[in-house]
Write a structure and sequence with these properties.
Keywords: Glycosidase, Hydrolase. Its EC number is 3.2.1.86. The protein is α/β, with parallel strands linked by helices. Helices cover 38% and strands 13% of the residues. It has a single domain, classed as Alpha-Beta Barrel (TIM Barrel). The protein is built from 14 helices and 14 strands.
Length: 467
């Protein structure tokens, strides 16, 4: 396989799933601190002991050990997020929390010590809890100002340390998970379509503001949007099924269109008209959106789905969809489709003509720790190697197709707490972390078989992949 010489190989995590230390050094609560059962459960009033994310894998204290392991694999880039409530504990504070800022200084310095570029998600499913409770999250226009203050603080502090920034994680998920994605406390069934799309508009404006500030304050920086990508196939060649696919694609393409083209597309204007949706926006906001588009498009990719008449529901994760009868599924029911990644890369580049960055892709599985025959312990995760190999082969095919792919960061490069189920047993990493679903375990780190496989893939710049 042919990958560019400057291809950014690496891995990805989120602060709320790995850091722990939820109450240390001035950090405020965020919405994940009161979601002990993952995205499918409602929030609790206060943090509860059964929430594994409160301690997670203790990355907050163990990051030097973990970054060193990433460096051993040869990472060129490490995607992580900043916990907003570490910097502004309530979200609407007048001044930032210095201890929180200092932690990320140490983290980014550790990355750069090994020549690893940080790729930072500014908001990754961890809205400060106070903003959710007091303002109803991104349903409220006031969050634009709080977010602007937050990103200005980040850019002032970390310019020169962070070159690549993402404004929101999987921004299109707010339509399906308004609490997780938008910090919106109102139950989804009680939100009108206008409420949901107004929240989207607030995030679009905030994202454009962040892009504007980044380009002004850090001319060398690159800013991307981040969307949940899920290719959609028709169940049959029937024209009705093709139209169903087109309409389903519109609801996801909309978020990329807004970030890349900077204006509301005609298909959404029609949808708004026909559903009585009225978006409140000012001429100044329209100009801001138009003039501050992103430098690249990043996305997560795990599954593809089908749409059309009939079929069996349940092919996807957050976005739903129908099962593809031609694909196998993971233990958690996510259908495995490596070719869908090549298709997605081509479709996105055809549509947006922007560099693309795959910032999440991976296989969640129940790994078993075994003796390695050398006095240590490991995981024989050939299933993960096969999954990642097959997806990376398709990335290489897309690059051969002429698609400019900036890099690839596997999701959960070290085991962490699952966002969807709040389990440790759903493991993605190259590094096994000794922690169990009941909270027991030593937190010791053990490289898996895939650790050494990925090291070889990176060292060979993809030549070690098996087509």
């Amino acid at each position: 396989m042919i990958f560019p010489d400057d291809f950014l190989w690496g891995g990805a995590v989120a602060a709320n799933q790995c850091e722990g230390a939820y109450h240390e050094d001035g950090k405020g609560l965020d919405i994940q601190d009161v979601m002990p059962k993952g995205i499918l459960s409602g929030p609790t009033a206060e943090p509860t002991p059964d929430n594994l994310k409160l301690k997670a894998i203790d990355f907050y204290h163990r990051y030097p050990e973990d970054i060193k392991l990433f460096a051993e694999m040869g990472f060129k880039v490490f995607r992580t997020s900043i916990a907003w409530s570490r910097i502004y504990p309530n979200g609407d504070d007048a001044e930032p929390n210095e201890e929180g800022l200092a932690f990320y200084d140490r983290l980014f310095d550790e990355c750069r010590k090994y020549g690893i570029e940080p790729l930072v998600t500014i908001s990754h499913y961890e809205t400060p809890l106070h903003l959710a409770k007091a303002y109803n999250g991104w349903a409220n226009h006031a969050l634009i100002g709080f977010y602007e203050r937050y990103v200005r603080t980040l850019f002032e502090r970390y310019r020169g340390k962070v070159k690549y920034w993402l404004t929101f994680n999987e921004i299109n998920s707010v339509l399906h998970q308004p609490l997780l994605s938008g910090g919106i406390m109102t139950p989804r069934e009680k939100l009108s379509l206008t409420d949901l799309y107004q929240a989207c508009h607030h995030e679009f404006v905030a994202s454009a503001l962040a892009t504007k500030l980044a380009h002004e304050m850090m001319p060398e920086a690159k800013v991307g949007c981040m969307i949940l990508a899920m290719p959609i196939y028709p169940l049959t060649p029937a024209p009705d099924d093709m139209i169903a696919v087109m309409q389903a694609n519109h609801f996801n393409d909309f978020f990329g269109d807004m970030h890349v083209r900077g204006r509301y597309p005609g298909y959404m204007k029609r949808y708004f008209r026909e559903n009585g949706i009225e978006i409140r926006m000012t001429p100044e906001e329209e100009l801001l959106l138009r003039e501050n588009t992103v430098d690249f498009v990043s996305f997560s990719y795990y599954v593809s789905i089908c749409e059309g008449r009939g079929g069996e529901n349940g092919g996807g994760n957050i976005l739903g969809g129908k099962k593809n009868p031609y694909l196998k599924a993971s233990e958690w029911g996510w259908q495995i489709d490596p070719q869908g990644l090549r298709y997605t890369l081509n479709r996105f580049y055809d549509r947006w003509q922007k560099p693309l960055f795959i910032v999440e892709n991976g296989l969640g599985a129940r790994d078993v720790l075994v003796d390695d025959g050398k006095g240590g312990r490991t995981v024989e995760d050939d299933y993960r190697i096969a999954y990642l190999n097959d997806h990376l082969v398709q990335v290489g095919e897309a690059i051969a197709d002429g698609v400019p792919v900036m890099g690839y960061t596997t999701w959960g490069c070290i085991d962490l707490v699952s966002a969807s189920t709040a389990q440790m047993s759903k493991r993605y990493g190259f590094i096994y972390v000794d922690r169990n679903d009941d909270g027991t375990g030593t937190l010791a780190r053990y490289p898996k078989k895939s650790f050494y496989w990925y090291r070889d893939v990176i060292a060979s710049n993809g030549a070690a992949l098996k087509a």
